[in-house]
Amino acid sequence: MFKRVDPLRVVILLTGLLAIGIGGWWIWMRVRHLRLYEEQIQPIRQMALSDDPGLAEVLDRSVVRIAAGDFLMGSNHGREDEVPQRPIYLDAFEIDRFEVTNIQFQRYLLATGDNPPPYWPGNGYPPGQADYPVVGVSWDTANAYCAWVGKRLPTEAEWEKACRGTDGRVYPWGDIWQNNRGNVALFPPTLLQRFPLGTEDGWQAAWQYLPVTQAGVGEPGLRPVGSYLDDASPYGVMDLAGNASEWVFDWYNWSDYSEMSTSNPIGLGPPWNHCVRGSSWYDPTGNENWVQNASRCSARNSSHSSSDPQVGFRCARTP
Questions:
Q1: Hey, where are the domains in the chain?
Q2: End-to-end distance of the chain based on CA atoms, in angstroms?
Q3: What is the pTM for the complete model shown?
Q4: What are phi and psi of 225, to 5 degrees?
Q5: How far apart are CA 1 and CA 218, in angstroms?
Q6: Assign residue 302 a region: left if phi > 0, alpha if psi is -120 to 50, beta otherwise?
Q7: What CATH number labels 53-317?
Q8: 94 - beta bridge partners?
Q9: Which among 213, 173, 180 has a CA at the least distance from the CA of 297?
Q10: Distances from the Cα of 316 to the Cαs of 110, 135, 155, 247, in angstroms?
Q11: For the segment 204-223, what is each residue's pLDDT rounded down to a tens digit?
Q12: 185: Cβ–Cβ under 8 A, 6 or more apart, which residues?
């Protein structure tokens, strides 16, 4: 005689097998994506080692297309300037996979005669930093650069969608904070003791670290774009948490989203400070909780300075 099968045990077994299958598929997809990112970054590193001027054009073409549709913008658990969270519709757009680098910006300077960032030795970037993000440029200069290459600065909404995708995730990689996934401003206490949090000395100290190539572990400093593959967003956009904070097109409105359009929103005023998105490589104002909060895709900020050592940018385009 056949032994009667317990339906509950069958359900549990099938559920377990399904979970194992989904977990295995997720790991396989993750490994596959990491390999693809590595294949894209390897030639960039090789060209950067020789300061190959062709690298600028390679990076210009490294863009990610994001399809039209809704995504969840804002957060009901963050600061007051992020509420309410709600679906926002965006037309299709393209956004740079990487932050604009020194070698790209140098090409622009040589063509236009614009001013170099304060930490550059003349019109050339620090040695060995061809593929580092350029920082310390004003919003006007970032906007002019993007126009010069036939693009524009992304809007706040575009930047946030590129960061979190359509599933409403908190960070580019998911919902759980992991500080080793990006070049974020977490320094040992011995370093912070030299520059008290929030002081002018602490902010000015950032400039002395920028010319340093290959900063040591635990020391503040920029890293080459794409150094943290696990920081990739669902679309494969890199360095949205850490490395440089980034200018976006919108003005920072000091308010919430209650009056914001739900279709292709752009913050056009009040004309005070332009908005900045993403956490940065250096921040003397807070601890790990501060950095964790600032690294969320929905986190908003602005810069009071036209030359900020934290802030770089990337460009976008309407296809």
A1: 53-317
A2: 68
A3: 0.87
A4: -60, 145
A5: 68
A6: beta
A7: 3.90.1580.10
A8: 65, 317
A9: 173
A10: 22, 18, 9, 12
A11: 888 989 999 987 777 889 99
A12: 220, 279, 280, 281, 282, 283, 284, 291
